[in-house]
Amino acid sequence: MNRQHYTIQKIAALLPALESTIVEDLEVEHLVIDSRRLINPDASLFFALQGHRDGHQFISDAYNNGVRSFVVSDRAYTTRYVDANYLLVADVLRALQQLSAHNRSLYDLKVIGITGSNGKTIVKEWLYQLLANDFNVVKSPKSFNSQIGVALSLWEIDQAHDLGIIEAGISRPGEMAVLEAMIRPGIGVLTNIGEAHAEGFFTMEEKLLEKLKLFKDVVVFVYSPAYTTGIPEAQLPGKRKFSWSFNSKADLQVISCETKDHRTLLTAIVKGKKVSCMLPFSDKASLENAVICWATLIAMGYDVAVAASRLNGLMMVGMRLELKNGINQCSIIDDSYSADISSLAIALDFLNLQNQHERKTVILSDLFETGRSKAALYAEIADLLAQKQIKHLIGIGPDLSAHKHLLPGDSKFYPNTVAFLEDLPNLHFQNESILVKGARVFEFERISKRLTQKVHDTVLEIDLSALANNLQFYRAKLKPGVKVMAMVKAFSYGSGSFEIANVLQYHKVDYLAVAYTDEGIALRRAGIKLPIMVMSPEPAAFDAIVCYQLEPEIYSLEILEQFNAFMENNAGTFPVHLKIDTGMHRLGFEEGDIETLLNALQRTKRIKVRSIFSHLVASDDAVHDAFTRQQLEVFNEIAGRISAAVGYEPLKHIANTAGITRVPDAQLDMVRVGIGLYGFDAALKNNRGLQTVARLKTTVTQVRQVKANESVGYSRRGVMPQDGSIATVKIGYADGYSRMFGNGVGRMLVNGTAVPTIGSICMDMCMLDVTGLDVKTGDEVVVFDDVLTIEMLAEQIQTIPYEILTNISQRVKRVYFYE
Ligand SMILES: *Cc1c(COP(=O)(O)O)cnc(C)c1O
């Protein structure tokens, strides 16, 4: 037994708990914070964390899923279930951290602690790739680097490990000291320091000093002087220091980078000697991350040349689950990230959140875990599959085949990937969601390639985790009990249909809203069960509205009469939403309509007013605050009259995204969040706190040399300012890249450098002036992302982010990521 043995009794004493109720002294193997993400519920201890939402609310969910042990801070919950164990503590997060810190303290292993603004996760994964042959490594899963993530990572340490690679991230001052006390790294790696405000700091120095707290007691400190400006070397941490740099003197000083065919020959001077290494990338961020890894290996005592030769084999890490359209109407979830049991649990959850197909299939390779027997590992995998109700498994590899008897009945097994690919034509995958998850040696990318539709070269990448994060951001701003309606009209602001709705449903928003009946029908057909409001319900679609249980917005006496007349022939009552015009002057009942409306409502038995709502016209702008107040007053007055007349209290709502933050009084019973989910909020400076959801990328089709004064494109509008080169890229106005971006107004990022358009934008293509840059056919071009933002594009052509996003045409393929 490699793992330290923990029981509830022992943990109660360790914390120590203020009070404990132990009905059965269960063993604890897993610490869980999400009632939906369970591996082995009997052996799980649930921590009711006080986050955006109160974790105590999820105790019943966890209990229903089989968990019987809970750490709580609210005494009222300790008597909820008679057959459950409770540990009462003052602070649940603190308890989680104490327990993990204790586990860490039992082992005398070497620990590399990594922090910085960017690159932490990549550096961690690469150090793992570089060191896994020499050590038994325990590392943070995915980007688990927060106050919670670090605790969960440290809990995994056991006797078998002799190296830990743990990343630490912070969101506000004061947090790093807590992480340091838990991680206690011996080797410290600082990746870099980016913009201060992005992480809740006022100055760069304040931020740097906070990050350096992680390295308080390290023996070796790996850093670049470029990121420690302002701090004298003597004040840097570490008994030994090892510096790296691209442009100044350092222990590892890069003196040249030559890029050819996406590979880079990097030459550096280390200890007075020139050494080169070949890296399989060319982008700036990857080169820097690779140099950090090189420096770390040298600082750990590796021979400079040996370390250099290992870098040669580094592989890009795809850290995210990818959801793509597959062949024969399948949805393919591609998880090439890692192949351990905790990431399998996450991937299965994501598979289960897909409602668009009834049938779900898992294609899984043998997994490799240290410190555990195969029998135990496959028993656990079998449990996990059973718990996630996976009935169709395709197992690839000798180990899975050898444990057939444990696995679902309707499974197929293949000795290796090639055997599976040979049999693929006989398997007839159709209309199902398929998770493809394999350890690297199995080369499952060959499988995903065969199962997915060819993605065209212009792709809109949607980060579903960022969307979920943005939802939580707004939830945290709501007063208790306020409901959330998520606006998914116009193909979720251009981002997608059921792909977005599945995530919103999983995260339990209360309502969805679409513009047209068709959009609502598409969501119902994809298995979305949430209530859906339709804002423009055309009378011809009333039948479909009733049939698909959509809920119409009623915005005029005329449409009310039409709906009433339609409902005469239907049994029962039907929910509707009344729209009041308080100043937008778009749709809705006006003050003068209200008497007639009340009469009409009292006459009909077939209509149930589910909600009354209005829309703020300028919630993001302080200049119009008086008008906003007035809208709110008018609304409250009218909504009060309607409630009194119908004799019950429909939900009342008026706030959109910007209203949530700026006008808390307007939250009422529900808010309608739209653009904020997608990462924009005019009421927040620099969208602080929100994450980028959409990235639009395309590729270079051709590069050519053009002489000075020659013209480029239609009508000779572009003129070459000097001899130089032009790259033609695969995006045009038919893809949603407006003609207004032509002639140097718009910019795109080519290998990280912003370059202007030249000439007019064509229907399917446009041209960029890439003079002086090393650009080749096939290179990736960023149209917008988190650096070149949609807001910048909106500013260039004097519009708003909403329009840029929703203009991306449907022929541009969407690919979804989930972390
Ligand atoms: C689109 C829409 C919203 C969402 O507005 P955002 O500014 O995107 O948050 C809210 N309410 C109504 C009626 C809408 O049409």
From TrEMBL:
InterPro entries: Ala_racemase, Ala_racemase/Decarboxylase_C, Ala_racemase_C, Ala_racemase_N, Mur-like_cat_sf, Mur_ligase_C, Mur_ligase_C_dom_sf, Mur_ligase_cen. The modification N6-(pyridoxal phosphate)lysine is found at K489. Its cofactor is pyridoxal 5'-phosphate. Pathway: Amino-acid biosynthesis; D-alanine biosynthesis; D-alanine from L-alanine: step 1/1. The active site is at K489 (proton acceptor), Y714 (proton acceptor). Signal peptide: none annotated. GO terms for cellular component: cytosol. Its EC number is 5.1.1.1. HAMAP family: Ala_racemase. Belongs to the alanine racemase family. Catalyzes the interconversion of L-alanine and D-alanine. May also act on other amino acids. This is Alanine racemase. It comes from Pedobacter quisquiliarum.
